[in-house]
Specification:
alpha+beta, Transferase(Phosphotransferase), domain 1, Phosphorylase Kinase, domain 1, about 500 residues
């Protein structure tokens, strides 16, 4: 962590206070037990109840400014993933108390390979690549909520993000004492060197939402590729000075040719993720407004996690890729691995107002020329899994600008023993299914279900006044409806 001015002397610090009782403004007493963290700003202890942690500031930081900052952070409403300030300490100590997070570990455990394990075992621990995508999505969601409040975290790093990737995945952000509104005073820290935006390193800007977006992108990049976007093979084998220049943005974004010490892009990135990272680390290196937002990364990671499958041989999660008509083998073990089924989403444009008749005519190839369907998103069905399909697959991503909770569940597909069953557990409106080879439509209302077969077509009646969105042009009526096709592979 870098102090905004200069690093203080590390000698004669408050780093040996085990057994000391400190008192909070609430009147509660906290007996300090083991020391669990030491940094430039201060020392972090557990209290002997095991329920709280206490951060004490070194004398250089124990100022009126830090107390004002702590009172601001204690007062402001933070997103649920950010652990709030529970209590402030009374003199002679300056510091704060927050709840202790159990059964979590620093995100660094997913960023820094364990030298005691083979790389493939370390990377694929817990739920492997699927778990990494899911954790990344949760991190992006949390910072998106902070961004909506125009708050800056200032110090995004693998030490300040605690994660649990077991049965119930969880992400918690600690060290919230540096959160502030850009332009409101001076931040206590500039960040952790590996993640500080170039303009902050150069002293051109203080941390804000745009620099947070940069830091978030670096964290997500490392989570997937296990390496920094500016540290090429040459720099990785170079001097500390070379690395410092790269971290300051003085080197080009790495390419597939000079990043062979990282996982390959095509193994861990979708097209959308590749484009977002390129935008951030090429166009957005110095043009801050071009950096992707946390919300953009959230959607990209949702999409990526919904397009991975589990290898039946080694159990590693990966994207199913095709070379011509043949599926590529698992990138981890070279075993045969392919999806069993997927759902392809479309926008269906048609003449008239009756989408059911229009689609039946479309299948018979007797539809008017103006009728067509355009592919939008795809979702790969996971075996022996409850596949939750997010709302934005149906309503579209732009709806989030209108306040819609588009990442929430829209419907689910249970895949078990070769049978896929759709359950309408997220939509208050019916889903209509046209079974392949049949002109009848089955209605799946809220909390009801229907088995799916290859070629079945789903229609989502999300129009306000009619099942489809209808417009009039040149004295003709045209319609649009969201639909999807279930396909066994």
């Amino acid at each position: 962590m870098i102090k905004a001015l200069e690093l203080p002397n590390m000698e004669n610090r408050i780093d040996n206070l085990q057994g000391t009782i400190v008192i909070g403004e609430s009147g509660k007493r906290y007996r300090l037990s083991q020391k669990i963290g030491l940094g430039a700003q201060g020392v972090v202890y557990e209290d002997d109840s095991g329920n709280f942690v206490v951060k004490l500031y070194h004398a250089e930081f124990a100022t009126n400014h830090i107390m004002e900052q702590l009172r601001f952070v204690k007062k402001v409403k933070l997103p649920s993933n950010f652990i709030p300030v529970e209590d402030l300490l009374c003199e002679p100590h300056v510091g704060f108390v927050m709840k202790r997070i159990v059964d979590h570990e620093p995100l660094d455990a997913y960023l820094l390979p364990d030298p005691k394990q083979p790389f493939h075992k370390w990377y694929n621990k817990e739920k492997g690549f699927f778990g990494r995508l899911f954790l990344g999505r949760m991190i992006a969601t949390a910072f998106g909520k902070l961004e909506n409040e125009n708050l800056s975290y200032c110090d995004i790093s693998g030490k300040n993000i605690l994660v649990c990737a077991k049965k119930q995945a969880s992400v918690q952000m600690i060290d919230v004492d540096n959160i502030y509104v850009a332009g409101r005073g001076n931040p206590g820290v500039l960040g952790t060197p590996r993640y500080i935006a170039p303009e902050v390193v150069k002293g051109l800007n203080t941390p804000d939402v745009f620099s947070d977006n940069y830091s978030l992108a670096v964290i997500l990049y490392e989570l997937l590729r296990v390496g920094h976007p500016y540290i090429s093979d040459e720099i990785a084998n170079g001097s500390p000075e070379d690395e410092a220049k790269a971290l300051a943005g003085e080197c080009d974004y790495i390419s597939p040719e000079n990043s062979t010490h990282l996982l390959p892009e095509d193994v861990v990135f979708t097209t959308r993720l590749r484009n977002l990272f390129s935008r951030c680390f090429k166009d957005g290196k110095f043009n801050r407004i071009k950096r992707p937002s946390a919300k953009e990364f959230e959607f990209a990671l949702i999409e990526a996690s919904n397009n991975v499958i589990k290898c039946p041989h080694c159990g590693a999660w990966h994207y199913p890729r095709k070379a011509g008509k043949k599926w590529n083998p698992c990138p981890w073990c070279d075993g045969e691995s392919s999806p069993k089924a997927r759902i392809q989403f479309y926008d269906f444009f048609f003449e008239g107002t009756d989408y059911q008749k229009a689609y039946c005519d479309f299948e018979k190839k007797s539809q008017p020329k103006a009728t067509k369907k355009t592919a939008t998103n795809s979702y790969v069905i996971k075996d022996d899994f409850k596949n939750r399909v997010p709302r934005f697959y149906v309503v579209g991503e732009k709806s989030y600008t209108m306040g819609a909770s588009v990442a929430e569940n829209c419907f689910s597909i249970y895949s078990k023993n070769g049978t896929c069953t759709l359950v309408n557990d997220g939509l208050d409106m019916p889903i209509k299914i046209k079974h392949y080879g049949n002109t009848n439509f089955t209605i799946v209302n809220k909390d009801t279900h229907c088995d799916l077969k290859n070629g079945d077509t789903l229609f989502f009646e999300i129009g306000d006044d009619s099942p489809a969105t209808i417009v009039e042009a040149s004295n003709q009526q045209f319609g649009l409806i969201k639909m999807a096709m279930f396909m066994e592979v």
